[in-house]
Design goal:
The two termini are about 25 Å apart. It is built from five helices and 34 strands. The chain has a 26-stranded antiparallel β-barrel. It has a domain of about 110 residues: Sandwich (Immunoglobulin-like), CATH 2.60.40. About 10% of the residues are buried. About 5% of the residues lie in helices and about 60% in strands.
Length: about 675
């Protein structure tokens, strides 16, 4: 195992902060009293009671209490010592269940034999074995057997002034291609490997974490970091807190570089200082900084184009709220210096032009106001909220771990409302690019209007007993993207108006939902249109219309059956062609017994067009039989699991006259599996 190391030149400030936090004297709030299992317990009743009833964890335990006086009773742990943990004691005045005679309720907290409030360790596992009995296609057939083991370990240790917890997950496979690191290490990948782990320590002032940690998002600078590394959160005083982290430059799994801090060249370190300016959480200032260096290494199991990058930056985020949190305003500013390093995988031995690092900026202003707030006693609650945002990001602004779009200026206004059961939202947004107005670049502007509403039609007429009245949801989106300049043809390559985009997109969706006794019905229709106004391409329009009906029926709380029908029409005006797609799914789920189930799914689709260019038909069936089981173990609780047997079949027929191509394929498989949980 490679424990990893920390480069002191990069990580020394973070390490110093961690040492200061660890050795700072904590302050602790008062907690409930904990006692040893051998300590006797004196119960004081609020009033004299001759024959009270004592119940511990819903178990009648009166015989374990000795009367000292009419208001005092003692519990003797020698007769029946309580196990470690938290227990609930309830005392009743009498045993009459028809009267509400509770006179005392309190917790009994028992320490572990080692004097801890909590001391536990738990190992869970899931073993799955799957056998592909036979698989056949028109070209080949094959069969295989593979197993998967998932292990999870959790542990916790706690006293009144601190808590320590740990959890880890591992994955083991018999099939090499399913190993966690197979995409990076191929045949060298370990078949049993570490998925993730997290070790946490906390008290009332300090929280430390090692493993797969996360760091809070900061607008425009830090988009949220969630990799392997360390993090610390420290309460400096009631109005000031500090959060720091140092993590690996990309998501990772496995035992190598167990801390995630092995390389300073592939590391993201960040810190945020939070200050409550007024002491009542109405004004909070957060100042953040980030120092990030990443190599050309992709995140685990993510296909992406990577590059060697480095960035250093800082941000300030001020949040104000008042009037019982009805008004909220936020101002954010970020500055980031970004650059690229030498990447041997990119240069391939050639001498490349070195890109200069540069500093760019971004800011964001937002405000929201609750104009009207609903009241609980209102039969028809009314609410109205307004929100506005203005944002500017420099053309070459970039910060590692942040995903804001550079070279954009955007403004948005959002209105949310409610009237009874009717909720609605209207949002308008405007965005433009090429903020430096470079004459050889195209400048575009995008205007978007969104509307969405949802309500129960029955509530409008105060007829909740009319089941035929549905719930309705409607939405409409309109987008207009167009050029607002015409780059000089001599220096840009643009060829006049025919190269300038101008396109309008409209999309409208309506859905109706009926919730009947044991039956659910949903119908939705979606219409979209792309209207191209660009010179020379006015016929490049596309109209689409989609319908879908879904019906689900259940009976005896055991069986479910349903079907889905869909039809889509896609018209390409420029090609003078209309494409159609019809499909359907029939699904059923039968509970044959308490432990046995049968699921059947049938699906079909038929695709064709108006000019006979292509035809495609698909038919599939999926039948799955499963049964829960228990495997007895001598002297131990049984293992719980289930086994299944599945049959899958698929037919595909395609015909493309233009290419004189006709294909028919058939594929089917039978597989069985067994899974055990322990």
């Amino acid at each position: 195992m490679n424990i990893g190391y920390v480069n002191p030149n990069t990580f020394s400030p973070v390490l110093l902060c961690c040492l200061i936090l660890i050795f700072s004297p904590p302050t602790f709030a008062q907690e409930a009293r904990w006692i040893r299992s051998t300590d006797s317990l004196l119960i004081q009743l609020p009033k004299a009671t001759s024959s009270p009833i004592f119940v511990i964890d819903q178990q009648e335990s009166s015989v374990l209490f000795v009367k000292i006086s009419d208001t005092s009773f003692r519990y003797n742990p020698r007769q029946f010592p309580l196990p470690a943990g938290q227990h609930e004691l309830v005392v009743y005045q009498s045993a009459d269940p028809r009267s509400s005679n509770e006179i005392l309720r309190q917790s009994i907290n028992i320490l572990t034999p080692g004097g801890y409030q909590q001391a536990s360790i738990k190992l869970d596992g899931d073993l799955s074995v799957a056998t592909n009995i036979q698989q056949q296609s028109s070209q080949s057939s094959q069969s295989d057997t593979h197993a998967t083991l998932q292990l999870s370990m959790t542990a916790a240790l706690a006293k009144k002034d601190w808590q320590l917890s740990a959890n880890a997950n591992m994955l083991g496979v018999t099939k090499q291609e399913q190993a966690l690191l197979f995409s990076q290490e191929q045949q060298q990948a370990k078949r049993i490997d570490l998925s993730d782990y997290l070790i946490q320590y906390r008290n009332n002032k300090l929280a430390l974490a090692l493993g797969h940690v996360s760091f809070a998002q900061q607008p425009l600078l830090i988009g949220g970091i969630d990799n392997r590394g360390i993090s610390a959160n420290f309460s400096l005083n009631p109005r000031m807190d500090l959060s720091i982290t140092s993590q690996n430059g990309s998501a990772m799994v496995g035992w190598r570089n167990i801390t995630g801090l092995r390389s300073s060249a592939h590391n993201i370190s960040a810190a945020t200082l939070g200050i409550d300016l007024l002491g009542d959480e109405q004004a909070r200032l957060e100042i953040s900084t980030i120092d990030a260096n990443v190599q050309s290494i992709a995140d685990f199991a993510v296909g992406e184009v990577t590059d060697v990058e480095h960035s250093q930056g800082w941000s300030a985020n001020l949040t104000l709220q008042g009037f019982d949190q009805r008004l909220r305003a936020q101002a954010s500013y970020a500055s980031s210096r970004f650059g690229n390093g030498r990447d041997d995988a990119l240069s391939e031995g050639l001498e490349l032009v070195t890109l200069k690092s540069r500093t760019d900026h971004a800011y964001q202003l937002s405000i929201s106001a609750k104009i009207l707030s609903p009241k609980q006693q209102d039969d028809w609650p009314v609410a109205l909220t307004l929100a506005a945002q203005h944002q500017r990001i420099d053309p070459l602004y970039k910060s590692i771990s942040d995903f804001s779009s550079a070279d954009t200026l955007s403004d948005s206004l959002t209105v949310n409302g409610q009237f009874g059961d009717i909720t609605w939202q209207i949002k308008q947004q405007s965005t433009r690019d090429n903020l430096d107005n470079i004459p050889s670049l195209l400048t575009t502007k995008t205007q978007t209007i969104e509307y969405e509403s949802q309500f129960n039609v029955a509530s409008l007429f105060q007829r909740n007993n009319h089941l035929w009245l549905p719930s309705l949801k409607a939405s409409h989106v309109a987008v207009h993207q167009y050029a607002i300049n015409s780059p000089d043809k001599a220096i840009s390559g643009f060829n006049g108006q025919s190269h300038l985009p101008d396109q309008k997109t409209r999309q409208t969706q309506l859905s109706l939902d009926w919730q009947l006794p044991k039956t659910a019905i949903e119908y939705s229709v979606n219409h979209s249109r792309i209207n191209n106004l660009q010179t020379g391409r006015t016929l490049a329009d596309i109209n689409s219309l989609n319908h879908q009906l879904n019906v689900q029926r259940s009976w005896r709380s055991k069986h479910n059956i349903g079907f889905t029908l869909s039809r889509a029409r896609h018209a390409d005006i420029e090609q003078n062609m209309v494409s159609y797609s019809n499909g359907g799914i029939i699904n059923s789920d039968f509970k044959l017994s308490q432990d046995t189930g049968l699921a059947i799914t049938l699906a079909f689709s038929n695709e064709y067009d108006s000019i006979g260019r292509s035809k495609l038909k698909n038919l599939s069936a999926d039948i799955n039989f499963n049964q829960a089981m228990q495997l007895p173990l001598f002297g131990q609780p049984p293992l719980h699991g289930q086994w299944h047997l599945r049959y899958f079949m698929q037919h595909n027929n395609s015909h493309q006259p233009d290419f004189l191509l006709t294909q028919r394929s058939r594929r089917w498989s039978i597989n069985a599996g067994l899974s055990l949980k322990f």
